[in-house]
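Narrative summary of target 7.
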Amino acid sequence: MQGKGGLAWYQRPIIFVSGKGGVGKSLVAAGIAKNLASQGRKVLLAELGEISYYRDFWGLPAVGHEPIRHKDGFDLALWSGETCLREYVLHYLRIERIVNLFFENKVMKALIGVAPGLAEIALVGKITSGLRKVGPPLSYDSIVVDCYATGHAEALFMSPKGMREAIGVGPMGHHSREMDEILRNENLSAFCIVSLLEELPVTETLEFAKNLRSQLGVHPRIVANKVLEMPVSEAELSRLHENEARNPLREFTDYLVGVDRRQKRYLELLKTIDDELNRVPMIFESDPQKLVSQTGESLRLR
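Modeled conformation, tokenized:
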């Protein structure tokens, strides 16, 4: 599936990767980043939140707001609403001591924590700042965003629209309109939803994709993770059973056939959203580097 101007989804400047918790979205996001970096693109893999998943995954000493270089050829950063808001305010005030006083004030910290949509708008502002040429330079060919899980991600994507409607004038209204336009522009932003081929993840993926289409007018791409690849056909298994009625593997192969049938049914449901969906097979690998490499190689990003 391509954007209006012919850009494939992985060629767009911003790629948001989301999905139900536990489906492997962080692994897929890392696989996309490594794949794109191997093609010679300048790539940033940006985590959203307060705690870095990749720090422990790769055994890194630290991951913070400022990008660090990963040995696989891309940069890595961890962005939270507060750090992005602090950077934005500092860019305009230019005096770090005043900014520190503002953010260290207990009343202001409480206000920032409860202000509806403020953290989300700060994050979207940071992610889109390079395209909008606002704030510190952010010069990357691709920003792969390891986004929140679906519910929180939806609130993130809707925050510019909500802020634009609440504050239609002034700098905040102007910036919110720009952010919203970038999210809706399918030559600039891509939305990738990762799903396991199980009932709850598929149901949540279908609902999330429907909401993205209706509220933003975008067409998300789907990555089906941990897809079972049957080594033989059902017909071959049936012949095996007939030839060896006491085959000790019979129960196990019957189980695999059942899993395969269920996965095929869920794949058909996901194809109603994206008939060219990517499949990541079950990968039996414990080494993080190899796991990311194999995940990236299984995605059609060329």
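The first strand starts at residue 14 and ends at 19.
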